[in-house]
Amino acid sequence: MRPLIKPIRTALAVLARQEGSNYVTTMMTIRRLGTGATRAALAISALAGTGAALAFGDKSVTDIPGGPRVNGLDFQPAVTEVADQIKTLHYGMLIVCTLIFVVVFGFMFYSIFKHRKSKGHKAANFHESVAVEIAWTVVPFIIVILMGAFATRTVVAMKDTTNSDMAIKATGYQWKWAYEYGNGEGAGIKFFSTLDTAQRQLSEEGKPAGNDYLLKVDNPLVVPVNKKIRIITTAEDVIHSWSVPAFGVKQDAMPGFVRDTWFLANKVGTYYGMCSELCGKEHAFMPIRVDVLSAADFTAWVDKQRKALAAAADDPKKVWEIGPLEARGEKVYLANCAVCHRPDGKGAGPVKPLDGSPTVLDPDRNAQILTVLHGRLNGAMPAWQGKLSETDIAAAITYTKNSWSNHTGQLVEPSDVVAAEAK
Amino acid sequence: MSAVLPNPADHGHDHDHGHEHDHDHAHGRPTGWRRWVFATNHKDIGTLYLLFAFTMFLIGGTLALLIRLELFQPGLQYFNPELFNQFTTMHGLIMVFGAIMPAFVGFANWMIPMQIGAADMAFARMNNLSFWLLIPAALMLVGSFFMPGGAPAAGWTLYAPLTLQMGPSMDGGIFAMHLMGASSIMGSINIIVTILNMRAPGMTLMKMPMFCWTWLITAYLLIAVMPVLAGAITMTLTDRHFHTSFFNPAGGGDPVMYQHVFWFFGHPEVYIMILPAFGIVSQVVPAFARKRLFGYTSMVYATSSIAILSFIVWAHHMYTTGMPVTGQLFFMYATMLISVPTGVKVFNWLATMWRGSMTFEAPMLWAVGFIFVFTMGGFTGLICSMAPIDIQLQDTYYVVAHFHYVLVAGSLFGMFSGYYYWAPKWTGVMYSETRGKIHFWSSLVFFNVTFFPMHFLGLAGMPRRVADYPMQFADFNAIASIGALGFGLTQVYFLVFVVFPGMRGKGEPAPQRPWEGAEGLEWEVPSPAPWHTYETPPKLDRTATKVIG
Questions:
Q1: String of DSSP letters for B345-406
Q2: Closest approach of chain A CAs to the CA of B164, in angstroms?
Q3: Where on the phi/psi map is residue B26: left (φ > 0), alpha (ψ -120 to 50), or beta?
Q4: Is B249 in CB contact (< 8 Å) with chain A?
Q5: Which of A46, A230, B12, B163 would you label with B133, given CA atoms 20 to 30 Å apart?
C-alpha cells in the first residue's frame, strides 16, 4: 500500500501548498464575479420586495447577525477563512454551471424552435460522430478534474486540526449540547447548552416570534477571536451534527466515537447554527450559538465561569431538608427532564409519564435512582450518571416524587445517589 | 382485448387471433379476480405494478403534503415533531420502495417482452409472486402508522443508533423492506433472464432498444445491492432484539459502519431509480425528432460506466462523518467523474434532437422537461460533489432540492413520458392531448415553485427534517408549500382525467403506430397489444426494429 499512497500524498501536498500566481488570480476573479453576482441577487430580491421583510411571515422579523437572513439567497456571511473559500468555490461552480447551462440549453432551445416539423424542417440522417463524442467526453472530464483541483486545497485545510490554540469537546445529547473546555485558557469549564424553554413553548403554541426564534440558548459556547479552536465532537445517544454555517463547519457527533473539526473566527460577534443530523423528536430544537469575544472579554468570561463553578459545587455528604431540595429539583427538572417528560410530568408519545409512574411511586427509592443513573431503552431515557451532580439527581428525583399527583413524601439524599452509584 | 380492463367492443378479437392451438389458452385464462390474483401474463402483472405504484405514489404524496402543511408557517400548528418525523421517514420509504421502483418494474413487465419479440417474461409465476409480495409489504409499511408508538421516525436512511430507539413499527418496516427487496431481486432475475434468453432471432444485444439496455443494467445493480440493504437492516434488527452490537455504540458497535453499508446500497439505488428513465427518454426523443438516437453505442457504454462508477462514490453522502482527507478526496473526484457519462447522455439526447423534425406531443414534452430539470439536478449534484461545499450544504434543504430535481423531475417525469408514449399500445385508445399538456405544464411549473426555493433555504442554512424553523425562512417555505399542493392536485388530475379514461377505453382508437417516428417491435403489433404478443419468434429486419414475417 505504502508505495501507492506516497505519490498521492506528495501530489496533495503540492496542490495544497500551491500559491502560484495563476491560482491566486483565478480565485480573485471568481471572488469578484461572485460578489457581483450576490449584489445582483440581492438587488433582484429587493426588487421582488422580499429582501427587506417577509411577505408571508411576520413582517417585523429581520436578519439575525451571524445567523439566517430574511429570505437569504446565499451562504451566511463568512467569518472564517474556510467559510470564505467555500463561498468562493461555490461562486466558481455557479459560474461554470451557468456557462454550461447557457451553452447546452442554448443548443436545445435553438433546436426546439428551429428544427420543428411544423416549420417544415426535414430530419437529417446522422447518428454518430466519433470526434464529437470523444470531445464531449474529454472536455467535461478536464473540467471536473480542474474543479476537483481547485477544491483540494480547501478539503486539506478543513481537515487540518493541528496546532490549535484551544480544544473544546462538544457532546450531543437528545436534545442539547454539552461543552467542555480542554486545554487552553478555559480548561475545565463545562456546561450544557439548551434551547431557551420559552422558545419551545412558542413553537408548541404555534406562535413563533422574534429574530432569534429557535436559535436562543441558555448558555452559548464562548470562544476568543482570532484563535484556532478545535472542536472535538462525540455524542451520548444518537448521531447529532455540530454546525455553524458562518464558520463553514459541520461535523457529525457520533456516539462511541470522537471526531474533530476546527475554526478560526476573525470577527467578534454571535453566530448561530442548528443540529444537522436527524436525532429524534426534538431535532429542530437543539440550536448552537457561539459567542466570539475579544481576548480580554474572553478572559473575563473565563474568570466569571470559574467563580460560578466554585460557588455551585456541592458537597454530596450534605444532608438536605425536603423543602430546599424540592425547590432545587424543580430547576433541575425543568432544565433537563421537562423537554421529554413535559413540565407537567405527563410525558408525550413514547415518553413515559412520571405523574403516577410506578417507578417514581415505588417505596424502594433505588428503583428510580437506578433508572436515572443508568438510563433505559437504549438511551431513549439517557443515563445521567456523571452528567448531573449527585445533588442535582437527588433533587430532581425528590421533586418528581412529590409533585403533581405524586405525594410519596419520600426524600432522596445525595448520599443515597452516591450509594446507588457504588452498586 | 384491452389489456387493461375487459372491453366489450373487443370480444371479436380473440377469434381473429385464434390459431388451433390457441384454443387451450382461451379456456385456461382466468377471469374476474382470478385474472389478477393468479396473473402470469406480463401485461396484467405490468398493470398491477403500475396501479400499485400509483396508489403508493398518492399515499407518499399525501404524506409530503402533510409535511408541507406543517412547514407552511414557522411554529408547530398541526403535528407534533414525533409525528412529523414519521411523515418524512414514511414519505421517503414509500416513494422509493413503493412508488418509483415498482413503477419501473411495471414498465419493464409491459415493454421488455414486447420490445425484444418475446411471448412473455421468462418466469411467469415468479413474476406473479414478485408482485404479490409487495402487497403485504405495503400493508405492513403503511400500517405501521397504527402500531404502538407510530411509524418509524428515523429517516428513510434508517441511521443507527436512532433506529434502536424506535418502537415495534421499526421491525414492521424492516420486514416490509425485506419483502420489497426480495420482490425486486426476483423481478430483476426475471428481467435479466428474459433479456438474455428470449430475444427474437436477429435482436442482438447491440440492436436492443435503449429501455431494455438500461433495465438490464439496472437489474444487475439491483441484484448487487438489494442484499446489502437486507444485510444492513437485518443487523439493525438483531441489534434491536438479540443484543448484538453491529451498530450499537453502547456495545462497541459502529454507527458509521451502518452508513457505509447503507450507502453502498443507497448510491447505486439512486441510479436504479434513474437509469430506466434514461431508457424511456432515449426512446421517446428519437421518435418525436424523427431521427435515430445519436450515439447508441456510447449510450450503452455511458450507462454501464454510470452503473460501475455508482459503486465507488457512496461515501459522498458522508463527508460530515469525519472521513480522513484522502477518503474525502477520493470520493470527491470519483463523484465528479460520474458526471462525465451522465453528461454524455444529455449531449446525445440533444444531438438526437439537433436537426430533427420535431413535434411536441405529451411524451416529447415530458422527455424535454425531463432533460431540462434533470440537468438542473445534475448541476446541483456537481456542486454538492465538491466536499467543502457539500459540508456546508449537507443535511440542509439544498440537498432536498437536489434529490427532488433528479427523482421527481428525473424519474417521475421520465415515467410520465413513458406512460403517454406507450399507453395507446396498452389501452388501445389515445389519451387527450390537451389533458396531457395541462398535466405537463402544471407539473413543470408547480414542481419548480415547490423545489427551486429550497435551494435558497439550504444555502441560507435551514436544516432538513425539522418540524419547525427560524422565522427568517418563512417565505420560501410558504411558497414551497403552495407549489406542493398544486403539484399534488395535478397528479390527481392525471389519474382522474388521463389514466381512468384510458383504462375504460374512452378516447380515439389508437392506431398500431400512433407516433410517426416511433420504431421498435412494440409498434409492430396492434393497439391494444394482443394477450400474447409474439407466440412464435418473429423474423426481424436488419435493424431489428421491424417484423418481416
A1: HHHHHHHHHTT--B---HHHHHHHHHHHHHHHHHHHHHHHHSHHHHHHHTTBHHHHHHHHHH
A2: 7
A3: alpha
A4: yes
A5: B163
Of the candidates B375, B348, B216, which has an alpha carbon nearest to the alpha carbon of residue B292? B348
Count helices and strands (H / E) in chain B.
21, 0
Q: Which of residues 228-257 of A touch B (CB under 8 A)?
A: 233, 237-239, 241, 243, 245, 248-252, 254-257
Partners of B360 on chain A (C-beta within 8 Å) are 112, 116
Question: What is the total residue count of chain A?
Answer: 423
- Is A254 in contact with B255 (Cβ distance < 8 A)? yes
Angle between helix B433-460 and B413-427 (nearest 10): 160
Rounded-to-integer distance, Cα B156 and Cα B140, Å: 16
Three cell numbers written together for B490:
395535478
The answer to whether the Cβ–Cβ distance between B82 and A254 falls below 8 Å is no
Pick the catalytic residue from B49, B132, B156, B366: B156
Instruction: Give the pairing type, strands A221-224 and A287-293.
Output: parallel
- The closest alpha carbon to A91, from A103, A78, A106, belongs to A78
Whole-model pTM above 0.90? Answer: no
Q: Of B414, B272, B432, B442, which is closest to residue B361 (Cα–Cα)? A: B432
- What is the 3-class SS of chain A, one letter each residue? CHHHHHHHHHHHHHHHHCCCHHHHHHHHHHHHHHHHHHHHHHHHHHHCCCCCCCCCCCCCCCCCCCCCCCCCCCCCCCCCHHHHHHHHHHHHHHHHHHHHHHHHHHHHHHHHHHCECCCCCCCCCCCCCHHHHHHHHHHHHHHHHHHHHHHHHHHHHHHCCCCCCEEEEEEEECCEEEEEECCCCCCCCEEEECECHHHHHHHHCCCCCCCCCCCCECCCEEEECCCCEEEEEEECCCCEEEEEHHHCEEEEECECCCEEEEECCCCCEEEEEECCCCCCCCHHHCEEEEEEECHHHHHHHHHHHHHHHHHHCCCCCCCCCHHHHHHHHHHHHHHHHHHHHCCCCCCECCECCCCCCHHHHCCCHHHHHHHHHHCEHHHCECCCECCECHHHHHHHHHHHHCCCCCCCCCCCCHHHHHHHHHC
Instruction: Give the distance from residue B154's alpha carbon to the nearest chain A alpha carbon, in angstroms.
Output: 7
* Contact criterion met (CB < 8 Å) for A58 and B474: yes
C-alpha grid cell for residue A84?
Answer: 470564505
Judged by DSSP in three states, B423 sits in helix
- C-alpha cell belonging to residue B180: 420489497
The Cα A262–Cα A150 span in angstroms is 21
What is the C-alpha to C-alpha distance for residues A382 and A351, in angstroms, rounded to an integer? 12
Q: Do B382 and A348 touch (CB under 8 A)?
A: no
The tens-digit pLDDT sequence of chain A (423 residues) is 455 556 555 555 555 554 445 556 666 666 666 666 666 665 555 544 444 577 777 788 889 999 999 999 999 999 999 999 999 999 999 999 999 999 999 999 999 999 999 988 888 888 888 999 999 999 999 999 999 999 999 999 999 999 999 999 999 999 999 999 998 888 889 899 999 989 999 999 888 988 999 999 999 999 999 999 999 999 999 999 999 999 999 999 999 999 999 999 999 999 999 999 999 999 999 999 999 999 999 999 999 988 887 777 777 778 888 888 888 888 889 888 888 888 888 887 778 888 888 888 888 888 889 889 888 877 778 888 878 888 889 889 999 988 888 888 888 888 888 888 887
Does an H or E element contain B417, and which? helix B413-427
The residue annotated as part of the active site, out of B267, B404, B425, B455, is B267
Judged by DSSP in three states, B463 sits in strand
CA B321/CA A254 separation, integer angstroms: 8
